[in-house]
Sequence to fold (1680 residues):
Amino acid sequence: MLLQRAKALKKVNKKKIINDPVYGFLQIPHELLYDLLQHPYFQRLRRIKQVGMTYLVYPGAMHSRYNHALGAMFLMQKAIQILRSKGQEITDDEALGAYAAILLHDVGHGPFSHALEYLFIDGVRHEEISLRMMEEINVAFNGQLDTAIAIFKGSHPKGFLHQLVSSQLDMDRLDYLTRDSFFTGVSEGVVSWDRIINMLDVRNDQLVVEEKGIYSIEKFIVARRLMYWQVYLHKTVLAAEFMISKIMQRAQELARAGEPLFGTPALLYFFQNKITRAQFNSDPAVITRFAELDDNDLFSALKVWAGHSDPILSALCDGLMHRRLNRVYLFSTAPAPELVEKTAAQVCQQKNILPKDLHYWMQTGAITNDAYLPATDKILILRKNGEIKDVTDLSDNLNLKTLSKTVVKHYLSLPKEISI
Amino acid sequence: MLLQRAKALKKVNKKKIINDPVYGFLQIPHELLYDLLQHPYFQRLRRIKQVGMTYLVYPGAMHSRYNHALGAMFLMQKAIQILRSKGQEITDDEALGAYAAILLHDVGHGPFSHALEYLFIDGVRHEEISLRMMEEINVAFNGQLDTAIAIFKGSHPKGFLHQLVSSQLDMDRLDYLTRDSFFTGVSEGVVSWDRIINMLDVRNDQLVVEEKGIYSIEKFIVARRLMYWQVYLHKTVLAAEFMISKIMQRAQELARAGEPLFGTPALLYFFQNKITRAQFNSDPAVITRFAELDDNDLFSALKVWAGHSDPILSALCDGLMHRRLNRVYLFSTAPAPELVEKTAAQVCQQKNILPKDLHYWMQTGAITNDAYLPATDKILILRKNGEIKDVTDLSDNLNLKTLSKTVVKHYLSLPKEISI
Amino acid sequence: MLLQRAKALKKVNKKKIINDPVYGFLQIPHELLYDLLQHPYFQRLRRIKQVGMTYLVYPGAMHSRYNHALGAMFLMQKAIQILRSKGQEITDDEALGAYAAILLHDVGHGPFSHALEYLFIDGVRHEEISLRMMEEINVAFNGQLDTAIAIFKGSHPKGFLHQLVSSQLDMDRLDYLTRDSFFTGVSEGVVSWDRIINMLDVRNDQLVVEEKGIYSIEKFIVARRLMYWQVYLHKTVLAAEFMISKIMQRAQELARAGEPLFGTPALLYFFQNKITRAQFNSDPAVITRFAELDDNDLFSALKVWAGHSDPILSALCDGLMHRRLNRVYLFSTAPAPELVEKTAAQVCQQKNILPKDLHYWMQTGAITNDAYLPATDKILILRKNGEIKDVTDLSDNLNLKTLSKTVVKHYLSLPKEISI
Amino acid sequence: MLLQRAKALKKVNKKKIINDPVYGFLQIPHELLYDLLQHPYFQRLRRIKQVGMTYLVYPGAMHSRYNHALGAMFLMQKAIQILRSKGQEITDDEALGAYAAILLHDVGHGPFSHALEYLFIDGVRHEEISLRMMEEINVAFNGQLDTAIAIFKGSHPKGFLHQLVSSQLDMDRLDYLTRDSFFTGVSEGVVSWDRIINMLDVRNDQLVVEEKGIYSIEKFIVARRLMYWQVYLHKTVLAAEFMISKIMQRAQELARAGEPLFGTPALLYFFQNKITRAQFNSDPAVITRFAELDDNDLFSALKVWAGHSDPILSALCDGLMHRRLNRVYLFSTAPAPELVEKTAAQVCQQKNILPKDLHYWMQTGAITNDAYLPATDKILILRKNGEIKDVTDLSDNLNLKTLSKTVVKHYLSLPKEISI
Fold:
């Protein structure tokens, strides 16, 4: 029999296609998905930039989390189609679940969440917020997201569907590397998503990659590593993220101390009150308020705060608005305590601040880049003889083995006026 | 106060290159230009979307006016290089002036300015604001923008330099068609900017295009026409622009009537006070305040207003936030008065509003699409025999002649609940 | 004998994917198609350039007819998928037939067939040769091509399938415009194939385009027109095609006059014998021999003939090999007889030839460019109200009406030494 | 002073631009270069595929060596411009020399030269033939290539110019990786040529790369390695190259044994006579004849030989024409002698050949992939503190160190009927 088509998923809003600069035309394959797109929790992703402050280095990187979620769903459609064509059984309900799960996998991200995770809700990670939002939406949709949630949580019997949503080779990563590379213009990040997806298969309920795709996997891991250094952990991006993080921390402290502060009601809700995990679990208002936040709340406030009477807050805001960012230095080992101490004294003097406020203007710490972490979950290669191996055991030299080691760099972020 | 003078950077990184997803690497060819980039008036363009509400239809279209200005400067570099290689004399000062002029040509745009022109400063067009900002910057830069301003205003002796900045074949249009096509994913808008610029020359102080470029010009005009219908005047984009325009109008009316209204100080300044041309001319605070506005001010306020006690304001804001937009109908002739009247009554009933408030929910009028307007200024073709002709007199059929006619369409914008 | 039957492949790699620089990965959706690819008649298309002499102007245009056939089949897969998703019933057998038909639609092309149609087989068009080859293959494949042939000939009951293979909006045109634009680097020829295919539907057994695709259709017609002037009828391409045509004509005449001539046996077969339609119909050797020919036969001979004792043949060959081509002049009306006569005399003198041999060095005639020919078959638009209209009756101005007029240009092709 | 332009190189053929699908428009910056393009030695590169038999795996890879040479010259223009902008003195004569040198660096390649090096001229490498051709052209151009030849040979005082033509980071490699990746559609091979060239500088007459380009260099080396495994050393490509090599060897043996053989005079010249280095050095006819050869000579002959009376020749040719290629097995260590012996016996039986003819149908040996060979010449990184280091000493993990080890694979190429 020729060409098994996915049987038309019940009532398709047939003509819905969306232009995407990365992949061309995206089709919404089911009306449930179309309805999910319209949900306010999802629409707000239009107003949250995918890569936060990165646009200060790569001006094209204005794309939103909404773009990314749609793109990841497009890749999921390709993956499901390929796996079915190789004889893997995936029901229509499971396919729909996988589409909804990938569409909503990042729905719990707040604005600038790389820099600001935990700012709004103490100790609660964005994955938990995503899950909570999905559960809420599920109630509104009468349980139509049951399968999606099971796949997202990893409790669905077919574990490979979860791997498509969340693993070292999931549709999330394939899309964000492709997309962030596209919008930043960093061509080194290009990933052969088409080839990789074509090479996917399933054995023992695990995603595997056909052996001839091994160089594409190697390239994918290298591209990921390079995107970290060149984009996500770019020194100027780090400086900007530290700065916005310190601004929000300061503003929150002032608000909690009773200082008057300009801001949208949603922002002030999180600044004036400390929201704990307990409250997150018990008070539905937390999610409602959280869902009102986006990049606009932060930037509109930040511009106003540049004129605030608190000298630290206003100086930090003025610096960020005028792109007078710190300079970040990276070291392979932690900088010597004497250097840090000496520099700290210079910063205090130059900024005219007390040592207790040093952390607003000078940051130290470490960043890590894990191109591939076989300890977490592995990328498995399906050999022609049927054997299954971890990718690092197969590559023709030690290249991937070295890539699977975590790289740690130590940073020192300082005002540009201070040099070391 | 938010935006201040650009502190002259001491040590300029002369080899500055910027990644652009559209053209690859952009070089900043002079340190003056680098300093202009840092100016707060220019940096704010990072926070103003190039095509306003278009992202509601084309999710990729998040790109900023900052992106566009850099891109247009890149094309200007190409154009100057080509003209020089053909023997046209352009001094280094003139080249620098042309770069600065194109970089700053749109600096006076406010947020969503296609929808909101005149909202902030009564009767003053964005070109006038651009000029005023350039003049202010020029003072801060000790007259280094003299040539740029002369080119921008058309008072520089070499008129073709002004044409490169502003005419039917300027670097502005070449970039925005290319860029908007790129970010929307509407491949029909692709323009062969490279070929067109290679075909440019100057005769009698007028830009001309070598004859063999005539099909590229024809294609350029067609692409422009199609981008208007498919993107800039897309029915859903129109609906969203009408909506944000009506929201801001209503909010301004409420503010001027003394109603309390959430908003940044800059926004409230323009909402509580009516700024006239006279004030724009005499009060420096107007520009200072204007320069503080960007997309964030509008969207952060709009989200809050969705809970405002004024039923019209809150309903409009709620509609826009949840993408419940009007439906726009287009007609080749104005809709019959009876139809309009009947529909108006339905809208009033459905929205429970008085006829005087009908305009918030129902809009009528006309839009025009001028692909090529030879009456304004012409695109001139340089024939091999040296003759110069308007492009419409040369094309091998009547195609361009028809394209040079203005197309008018009449619209009726209505809540989706009402059908005609 | 060179080319024989394709040995039926025993174990087919069903998941066969092929890299294509234009579309990415192409999938071969059925093993019959994989077997067709291996057939010698089809494999020879690898050695025939899609756009003949065009590479002398656009060096990238080396792509083969094999590339194009695969690409057109890819588009057919998209089209079938879209039509099915809109509820059009297309059986698996019909889908397979449509794939095979588009794959083989050009299989009867000989080398440089735009310039050399009728050179090898007198008065027989390449479509007839394609059909003959398909019928022969069908015998070898035990009738598996019955549906494909019916679709190709237009005798299959579902006429829209034939339109997908051959009409003004067929997959052939969509692919060749896209592909030739890609390989020449003429970005003006880019066609939004993805959008157009997404807009296809069927009414009354006729392909129609949804109304909102009208600008894409307009753009498609304009792109086609421009590709004709800028690529297919480019003056230097014309000059080269006239030249290879005259070379082959001369060589054939010499061969038939009994002159010894270097050449592969297949080439000499067609040069020494005049093959008529009657022979084509009755003698199976004609197709066998024809299938042995490709670009290599012509170019290897042509290089040798540059040293032939016949002064006309050697001079023409030497000219083509060293890219000393004629110059082509285009006129909107036929050049005046006096001009032609005067020029003819100059050519005879310059080339030292008799008037009877003038045609080898000087050509006159007319070329036509039919961007859209509604007289032949129409591109139909499906309006939202269900009405069906010819695209030229719907476009919002006269643009398409003018494009639907045939443009005729008169040419005069002369050695560069002669100027007019 | 603004914008140092390269002073117009004497008399520029101003309007000459060439469309390139990879980079857009290429400009020919000097009329000498334009004249070089027209030279028959260079024009023949139009008829020699850049990557030989690769098109049997990647159908798009039909591009010619002519394309590549133009592309490499384009990159050289970028590189010279960047180095000048960083203050490196490069005279107009040197720039022109560098352009001519890179344009002609591969002019001595014969058809399928990866497979057929030494077939035509015993023991003479293509670089020597390139040099000889350049010297001949230099005579015809009255010494205008003196600087180009000095740069090509490495005898010009500014050694970095030679490095731009030939080193581990030369314009040749940057173009061929970019171009072969483009035409094969193997997106993994994409190299950020733009970024790499922007990072180039010169210290102590050596090309160096600014430190912040280190990830682009790493990516370049990885991409190169992958292109080797995925394209240049692809198993099917190897099989086809072995096959054409064996065909030509057999045909040459038959010709030298006096067997009649179809072929162009140029091909037969090299097949009937054994051309030694001594003859290459002394007899000008050798180069003249060599310059007549291109892909057409080989393929036109090969098709005819499929009907030759010699069973080995005809069987090999028939196999190649119908793409019945050997299967290649790769091993990390040399296959066991017993396996080779046993397999050899099977091949002899299956093909009905004597052990002395085994080598036509079965090949063994080793291939190597040197992604980066610091022993030959190094890629040097210029640190911010002015220090210069080999790239492998700087990368943040052992990744590049492992990449700089030569990878050896052992192959066994067998008819598909035999399995191991």
Q: What stands out?
A: Chain D touches chain A at residues 186-188, 190, 192, 194-195, 215-216, 218-219, 222-223, 226, 229-230, 332, 396-399, 401-403, 405, 407, 409 (CB under 8 Å). Residues 235-256 of chain D form the longest helix (22 residues). The radius of gyration of chain D is 23 Å. Residues 1-14 of chain D have pLDDT under 50 and may be disordered.
